[in-house]
Specification:
Layout lengths: L2 E7 L5 H7 L3 H11 L6 E6 L3 E7 L7 H11 L4 H4 L4 E4 L1 H12 L10 H14 L2 E2 L2 E2 L3 H20 L9 H13 L6 E5 L3 H12 L4 E6 L2 H10 L3 E4 L12 E4 L10 H7 L8 E5 L16 E5 L11 H5 L2 H21 L3 H23 L7 H31 L3 H11 L12 H11 L1
Parallel strand pairs: 7-8, 7-10, 8-9, 10-11, 11-12
Antiparallel strand pairs: 1-3, 1-4, 2-3, 5-6
Amino acid sequence: MPLAVVGVSHRTAPIEVRERFAFGRAEMAPALLAATGGRAGEAVLLSTCNRTELYLALPEDGFSVEQAQAILAAKIGETAQGAARWMYVHRDRQAVDHLFRVTSGLDSMILGEPQIQGQVKEAYATAREVAGPSGPVVGSALNRLFQSAFAVGGRVRSETGLGHGAASVSSAAVELAKKIFGSLKGRRALVLGAGEMSETTLECLRGEGVRTAIVANRTFDRARELAERWGGEAVRLDDFGTALPAVDIVICSTSAPHPVLTRERLRRALPGGPRQPLCIIDIAIPRDVEPAVGDEPNVFLYNIDDLTQIVDDSLDRRRAQLPAAEGILAAEVEEFWAWYASLAVVPTIRALREHGERVRLAELERAGRHLAHLSERDREAVEALTRSLLNKLLHAPTVRLRDAAGNGRGTAALDTLRYLFELDHPPPGDAGPERDETMTEARE
């Protein structure tokens, strides 16, 4: 079952393209079911502010990577060929390496940022709740892959300094506002959204001395809960325009599929325009703020791609940790791939042992006619002896076959073993006693 990842990210597509690829929570299950093609494949869909990726474990004769590309392309109303300029495909070992880099923060817009691991866990948990005609869309292959990825991310963060001082997207947004105003002490801020990113934003704003923080969210109880936790105020999302005249900073991170702050809405809230500079930072995908808002006088609009321009004083120190992180990744990729490649030899190992067991039982039955005088205890000893001999004879081939699979030589070893033991086309009688005796006499 080949592994693959098909996706787009901040490395391949600008924000205006990435937001078109973004999947809402309600769109996840249909996309996952389509991605498995109604067959025994597996899929996990990851959609964040910086990437949309389909992770796949595909049956040999089932759904294809090309069909997965078509699913993502259809999200933006294009053919797979038309969307190919933004997409990448990683297969097998490269797909494993890519996921490990994602969960470790090595592939993030902000090196080492901590939020991505939680986002990957959420995507994995969502996929595990989805089942189609062939069963759950997450099976043993992707279960093991994602559990390994979480462990790798944990190792990189605990055993290296890659995450030390790393900015999250939320903290980078607050840092951007700080660079614009010089200091945020005494400033007033409005946060649109009440998810994890908004909570981190509020924490960072408070840490920088923001005097007033207003939280607007579609679910008012959640907005009130978050505002109370951080000493702020809450308003309904539909009413956030009433707060605009009183704030200096707006940071947006809702999950709305369309802009919630349009140019028209801004003009209604501020008929004469802002009296002082209004800094709006939109870290949502799809974007919460209509780009034309940035054309209004005294309005300074930034999106998530602008965060890469922030000077990060700890970046050089974190880059120095890359060799250690790369070493962890390389070792973990090898370990996972050795396990995954060994799965291909399991049917052959099973067939080999079943063949050996049939021969053993046939020989015992034939010999039994001449050993009728043996006691029950002696018969059990003979049974144990033949079983032990079979296990010892098959132990080395089994180990070597698994090693060969892990080293990329599995196909040749499988073909040789199946040919030598006639596992694909066993002869009549499955190499019965008479045939074995003939071969023994010929060798002697």
